[in-house]
Amino acid sequence: MATVRLLTDDELSPEARAVFDDIRAVRQTEFVNNFWRALAHDPVTLKRTWESIKQVMGPGALDAKTKEMLYVAVSIAHGCNYCIHSHTAAARAKGMTEAEFAELIAIVGMASETNRIVTALGVEVDDEFKL
Amino acid sequence: MATVRLLTDDELSPEARAVFDDIRAVRQTEFVNNFWRALAHDPVTLKRTWESIKQVMGPGALDAKTKEMLYVAVSIAHGCNYCIHSHTAAARAKGMTEAEFAELIAIVGMASETNRIVTALGVEVDDEFKL
Amino acid sequence: MATVRLLTDDELSPEARAVFDDIRAVRQTEFVNNFWRALAHDPVTLKRTWESIKQVMGPGALDAKTKEMLYVAVSIAHGCNYCIHSHTAAARAKGMTEAEFAELIAIVGMASETNRIVTALGVEVDDEFKL
Amino acid sequence: MATVRLLTDDELSPEARAVFDDIRAVRQTEFVNNFWRALAHDPVTLKRTWESIKQVMGPGALDAKTKEMLYVAVSIAHGCNYCIHSHTAAARAKGMTEAEFAELIAIVGMASETNRIVTALGVEVDDEFKL
Amino acid sequence: MATVRLLTDDELSPEARAVFDDIRAVRQTEFVNNFWRALAHDPVTLKRTWESIKQVMGPGALDAKTKEMLYVAVSIAHGCNYCIHSHTAAARAKGMTEAEFAELIAIVGMASETNRIVTALGVEVDDEFKL
Amino acid sequence: MATVRLLTDDELSPEARAVFDDIRAVRQTEFVNNFWRALAHDPVTLKRTWESIKQVMGPGALDAKTKEMLYVAVSIAHGCNYCIHSHTAAARAKGMTEAEFAELIAIVGMASETNRIVTALGVEVDDEFKL
């Protein structure tokens, strides 16, 4: 179920097409996934989001695989099934092993458990953790 | 504000004390943070949680710093202020640089943004992302 | 997948039927959507929920379109796919343009991003924002 | 920090005062907690919310203690610190023991953990669980 | 859609098989639901999760039906459709009536409403609710 | 509690200072709120976030007040106390009346309630709501 139609390449505005061209160039594949096809109705947000993704997920202090794994962890916490699938695929493509994926899931589960227990207990931050 | 009192070392049951002893031994410090002092009212959950944390956060396929950063990411998504502080401190202690922390935060923000946009649009998972 | 069956008009209790009659009268359509058919197993909650919806979403300081758009924004943040679809349909019926829908989605995404960044950084409320 | 001032008894509109009178009569205490004092700026929502609370939390199939414990569990999952404190106090007043509270917390933690693991794995609902 | 395949009994490692044997023995049924089949790729997390579930959901201060209802409430708040279905089935199997389920849903809804209203208003915890 | 220090004007890097200058110019005030002072440790994210905010919250199909109200609604759903305060202040500055704020809160509450009830019931999207 979707609230907007996915756009085919033939239906793109020139602004959206330029973003798709860049996605294909950066990722070195013809494949453009559904997220961008849904977002292409709004070329301004499409362009801003793609430029932001390129900056945030591009080369930096953290390696590409770790970045994708952090993305997956947040997507699980937010219950975004599409995002879990797309970024798990990306993490695997960037070298995440099944053992690492299993550990990621265990950590997300464990954090979720203690996040809620801490909230239930109303634990005050220790002075040792303050700046 | 808390829903239970923090227990001092003198108030611990023998079962809780044994867990505190193990926390101190494993972490090689006398400091036991407030989370465990709040949880110590329930020695069974205290012990199970500590044993689980040791297993999940112990040596494995992912390094200790990456594990703590995943923990922080989930804690941000769940809005657990205490957990953000305690696990950011742990990640820093395990070598997370300020540049890495900044990237972590940017990724959590970016993922949060696209998680909700994807949900709003109702994007279907691409066949390419299916097993 | 559902945890209760949808009730047809023929299966309604008299109390539930009276609510359906009012839904049809207020909305001036024979169509009663699935939410009410699922909720009709519990006529007391059905009636209370419908009366509340009528009050909250009825004429007031905010116009009907803005009210539905706020409803959609919250439903996205909570990940309720059904609610996103039903209230997006309602917002469109009340005049929301596709350009407005695109802006709504961009705002929800932006707010989600900064909500989590603020939480990560632990920013204190400025005195200027206090009452 | 608050976005509205708490109203004292002297500042209430007649409509809000009538709700406060009923809260005091039903609960058999002079004490009216801050939630109602913040909500009293909007007597219509104040009245609707109180009437709904009375209906939902009043006598029914579930006993009063179990109802408050369910309220606490949801409040933990939503990270509402005020609600956790007010409904934990209510649950204790209605007979929740510390052992029961500890089990509630353990269940909320466990459910949070498996909720996220299931979401990560994308587990399909078994036919056995379908209606 | 799933991020891992469900394992059949024939594909289990010896460690995973031992957990499945215990699930079958404790639950006194041959049926092992999909959650465990997805988790079985990681026998260590499988075993830890099952042992934790047994401890948390086993005999204690709260009866089995109430425990499952708390699990359902949290699963609703977290939007885990699988978990809602599996634990609603479990709660029904342990005696939850349809009237009790209807009240559970009404309470979850009511708590969600007031949780967000309290957060919007920024209500401070009353001294009366502090320890 | 914060995980990074707030930067004063004197501590800003030239890149961060340039963003602060633009914030002051666009908003026509010397006041720069804490969010930007916490984010200023990472001038790249600071600049990207400010540019995005300017684009998303700038002139468009929706008026400035409605945009801020949508921002507030999402911030409530995500439990970001800082964001609720800063964007409620912004919405008020852009003309939101107290009656409109009260309706916003009532809608967020109502949506939260039905979001969770729909999720509990597992309601399928009506064909009428599909594209």
From TrEMBL, chains A, B, C, D, E, F:
Using the record's annotation, list all stretches that form the Carboxymuconolactone decarboxylase-like domain. 54-123
Task: Please name the Pfam families in this protein's record.
Answer: CMD
* Domain of life of the source: Bacteria
Coiled-coil ranges from the UniProt annotation: none
The molecular function terms in GO held by this entry are: peroxiredoxin activity
**UniProt name for this protein:** Carboxymuconolactone decarboxylase family protein
